[in-house]
Amino acid sequence: MVIWFIGMSGSGKSTLAHALYEQLKPKTRHLVYLDGDEFREMFRNDVDHTVEGRRKNAERISHTCRMLDHQGIHVIASVLSIFPEWQAWNRENFSDYFEIFMDVPMETLRQRDVKGLYAAADSGRMPNVVGVDIPFPRPQQPDLSVDQTMQEAGVGYCVDRLLDRLPELD
Ligand SMILES: Nc1ncnc2c1ncn2[C@@H]1O[C@H](COP(=O)(O)OP(=O)(O)O)[C@@H](O)[C@H]1O
Ligand SMILES: [Mg+2]
Prior knowledge:
By secondary structure, this protein is of the alpha/beta class. The chain has helices at about 15-25, 35-40, 50-70, 85-95, 105-110, 115-120, 150, 155-165, and strands spanning about 1-5, 30-35, 75-80, 95-105, 145. It has one domain (about 1-165): P-loop containing nucleotide triphosphate hydrolases (Rossmann fold, 3-Layer(aba) Sandwich).
Protein backbone atom coordinates (compact mmCIF):
# COMPACT_ATOMS: atom_id res chain seq x y z
CA MET A 1 0.00 0.00 0.00
CA VAL A 2 0.95 3.63 -0.35
CA ILE A 3 0.58 6.04 2.58
CA TRP A 4 0.68 9.54 1.11
CA PHE A 5 1.14 12.73 3.13
CA ILE A 6 -0.11 15.96 1.55
CA GLY A 7 0.28 19.50 2.80
CA MET A 8 1.96 22.82 2.17
CA SER A 9 5.58 23.54 3.05
CA GLY A 10 6.08 23.42 6.82
CA SER A 11 2.84 21.56 7.48
CA GLY A 12 4.73 18.62 9.00
CA LYS A 13 4.67 16.05 6.18
CA SER A 14 8.31 15.00 6.39
CA THR A 15 8.39 15.08 10.20
CA LEU A 16 5.33 12.88 10.62
CA ALA A 17 5.99 10.62 7.64
CA HIS A 18 9.52 9.91 8.85
CA ALA A 19 8.35 9.29 12.42
CA LEU A 20 5.76 6.83 11.09
CA TYR A 21 8.44 5.11 9.00
CA GLU A 22 10.74 4.76 12.03
CA GLN A 23 7.90 3.25 14.01
CA LEU A 24 6.84 0.76 11.32
CA LYS A 25 10.19 -0.23 9.84
CA PRO A 26 11.36 -2.66 12.56
CA LYS A 27 8.35 -4.89 11.93
CA THR A 28 7.76 -4.10 8.23
CA ARG A 29 10.63 -5.27 6.07
CA HIS A 30 9.20 -4.19 2.75
CA LEU A 31 8.74 -0.53 3.49
CA VAL A 32 10.40 2.50 1.93
CA TYR A 33 10.16 6.20 2.63
CA LEU A 34 10.04 8.58 -0.29
CA ASP A 35 10.19 12.34 0.25
CA GLY A 36 9.22 14.70 -2.57
CA ASP A 37 12.15 17.07 -1.96
CA GLU A 38 14.69 14.22 -1.79
CA PHE A 39 13.19 12.72 -4.92
CA ARG A 40 13.67 15.99 -6.78
CA GLU A 41 17.31 16.12 -5.64
CA MET A 42 17.92 12.52 -6.77
CA PHE A 43 17.30 13.76 -10.31
CA ARG A 44 19.69 16.66 -9.78
CA ASN A 45 16.83 19.14 -9.50
CA ASP A 46 16.13 18.84 -13.22
CA VAL A 47 12.56 19.96 -12.62
CA ASP A 48 11.88 23.34 -11.11
CA HIS A 49 9.17 24.59 -8.75
CA THR A 50 6.89 26.02 -11.45
CA VAL A 51 3.51 24.34 -11.81
CA GLU A 52 4.85 22.38 -14.80
CA GLY A 53 7.99 21.32 -12.92
CA ARG A 54 5.89 20.27 -9.98
CA ARG A 55 3.62 18.28 -12.29
CA LYS A 56 6.58 16.32 -13.66
CA ASN A 57 7.83 15.59 -10.15
CA ALA A 58 4.34 14.47 -9.04
CA GLU A 59 4.08 12.22 -12.07
CA ARG A 60 7.45 10.60 -11.41
CA ILE A 61 6.66 10.06 -7.75
CA SER A 62 3.27 8.50 -8.42
CA HIS A 63 4.73 6.15 -11.05
CA THR A 64 7.59 5.16 -8.76
CA CYS A 65 5.14 4.45 -5.95
CA ARG A 66 3.08 2.29 -8.28
CA MET A 67 6.12 0.31 -9.39
CA LEU A 68 7.13 -0.38 -5.79
CA ASP A 69 3.57 -1.08 -4.66
CA HIS A 70 3.08 -3.61 -7.45
CA GLN A 71 6.23 -5.42 -6.31
CA GLY A 72 4.84 -5.78 -2.80
CA ILE A 73 6.77 -2.89 -1.27
CA HIS A 74 4.85 -0.50 0.96
CA VAL A 75 5.62 3.17 0.49
CA ILE A 76 5.31 6.15 2.81
CA ALA A 77 5.48 9.30 0.66
CA SER A 78 5.54 12.94 1.72
CA VAL A 79 4.76 15.20 -1.20
CA LEU A 80 3.53 18.76 -1.64
CA SER A 81 0.88 17.48 -3.98
CA ILE A 82 -1.13 20.20 -5.76
CA PHE A 83 -2.70 18.04 -8.45
CA PRO A 84 -6.10 16.55 -7.65
CA GLU A 85 -5.86 14.51 -10.86
CA TRP A 86 -2.70 12.78 -9.58
CA GLN A 87 -4.32 12.12 -6.24
CA ALA A 88 -7.19 10.47 -8.14
CA TRP A 89 -4.65 8.54 -10.23
CA ASN A 90 -3.03 7.33 -7.02
CA ARG A 91 -6.32 6.04 -5.67
CA GLU A 92 -6.99 4.21 -8.88
CA ASN A 93 -3.54 2.76 -9.50
CA PHE A 94 -2.23 1.67 -6.11
CA SER A 95 -3.28 -1.61 -4.52
CA ASP A 96 -4.28 0.42 -1.49
CA TYR A 97 -3.99 4.18 -0.94
CA PHE A 98 -4.22 6.05 2.36
CA GLU A 99 -4.07 9.83 2.05
CA ILE A 100 -3.22 12.04 5.01
CA PHE A 101 -3.81 15.78 4.76
CA MET A 102 -1.68 17.97 7.01
CA ASP A 103 -4.33 20.64 7.54
CA VAL A 104 -2.40 23.56 9.04
CA PRO A 105 -3.56 27.17 8.52
CA MET A 106 -1.44 29.50 6.44
CA GLU A 107 -0.96 31.77 9.44
CA THR A 108 0.82 28.97 11.35
CA LEU A 109 2.88 28.02 8.30
CA ARG A 110 4.06 31.61 8.04
CA GLN A 111 4.99 31.61 11.72
CA ARG A 112 6.91 28.34 11.40
CA ASP A 113 8.45 29.21 8.03
CA VAL A 114 10.86 26.26 8.40
CA LYS A 115 12.64 27.03 5.12
CA GLY A 116 12.14 30.79 5.01
CA LEU A 117 10.04 30.36 1.87
CA TYR A 118 7.05 32.40 2.95
CA ALA A 119 9.07 35.41 4.07
CA ALA A 120 10.95 35.34 0.76
CA ALA A 121 7.72 34.99 -1.23
CA ASP A 122 5.94 37.73 0.70
CA SER A 123 8.77 40.16 0.06
CA GLY A 124 8.71 39.32 -3.64
CA ARG A 125 12.10 37.60 -3.63
CA MET A 126 10.78 34.14 -4.44
CA PRO A 127 8.23 33.03 -7.02
CA ASN A 128 6.45 29.66 -7.24
CA VAL A 129 5.61 29.23 -3.58
CA VAL A 130 2.52 27.10 -2.97
CA GLY A 131 0.04 28.98 -0.78
CA VAL A 132 1.33 32.35 -2.00
CA ASP A 133 1.44 32.61 -5.82
CA ILE A 134 0.58 28.98 -6.59
CA PRO A 135 -2.80 27.94 -5.20
CA PHE A 136 -3.09 24.87 -2.99
CA PRO A 137 -6.28 22.93 -3.71
CA ARG A 138 -7.46 21.34 -0.46
CA PRO A 139 -7.55 17.58 -0.89
CA GLN A 140 -11.21 16.63 -1.28
CA GLN A 141 -11.26 13.15 0.19
CA PRO A 142 -8.33 12.54 2.50
CA ASP A 143 -8.53 9.35 4.54
CA LEU A 144 -7.32 11.31 7.54
CA SER A 145 -6.66 14.97 8.33
CA VAL A 146 -4.05 16.00 10.86
CA ASP A 147 -4.94 19.48 12.07
CA GLN A 148 -3.04 21.91 14.22
CA THR A 149 -4.78 20.88 17.46
CA MET A 150 -3.72 17.29 16.85
CA GLN A 151 -0.17 18.42 16.03
CA GLU A 152 0.04 20.35 19.28
CA ALA A 153 -0.40 17.04 21.12
CA GLY A 154 2.99 16.01 19.67
CA VAL A 155 4.48 13.93 16.88
CA GLY A 156 4.23 10.71 18.93
CA TYR A 157 0.53 11.32 19.52
CA CYS A 158 -0.06 11.89 15.78
CA VAL A 159 1.82 8.68 14.90
CA ASP A 160 -0.36 6.74 17.35
CA ARG A 161 -3.56 8.16 15.84
CA LEU A 162 -2.30 7.19 12.39
CA LEU A 163 -1.53 3.67 13.54
CA ASP A 164 -5.10 3.44 14.91
CA ARG A 165 -6.41 4.06 11.42
CA LEU A 166 -3.93 2.26 9.16
CA PRO A 167 -4.36 -1.37 8.21
CA GLU A 168 -1.71 -3.85 9.37
CA LEU A 169 1.19 -3.93 6.92
CA ASP A 170 2.64 -7.38 6.29
N1 LIG B 1 2.75 16.94 15.39
C1 LIG B 1 3.57 17.41 14.46
N2 LIG B 1 3.78 16.71 13.33
C2 LIG B 1 4.63 17.19 12.39
N3 LIG B 1 5.32 18.36 12.48
C3 LIG B 1 5.14 19.09 13.60
C4 LIG B 1 4.26 18.67 14.62
N4 LIG B 1 4.27 19.59 15.59
C5 LIG B 1 5.14 20.54 15.20
N5 LIG B 1 5.67 20.26 14.01
C6 LIG B 1 6.68 21.10 13.35
O1 LIG B 1 6.26 21.54 12.07
C7 LIG B 1 7.39 21.68 11.20
C8 LIG B 1 7.12 20.85 9.98
O2 LIG B 1 8.23 20.82 9.10
P1 LIG B 1 8.39 19.71 7.97
O3 LIG B 1 8.10 18.34 8.53
O4 LIG B 1 9.71 19.93 7.33
O5 LIG B 1 7.19 20.11 6.98
P2 LIG B 1 7.02 19.74 5.43
O6 LIG B 1 7.76 18.46 5.15
O7 LIG B 1 5.53 19.60 5.29
O8 LIG B 1 7.52 20.90 4.67
C9 LIG B 1 8.62 21.21 11.97
O9 LIG B 1 9.27 22.33 12.50
C10 LIG B 1 7.99 20.35 13.08
O10 LIG B 1 8.79 20.28 14.23
MG1 LIG C 1 9.26 18.06 3.74
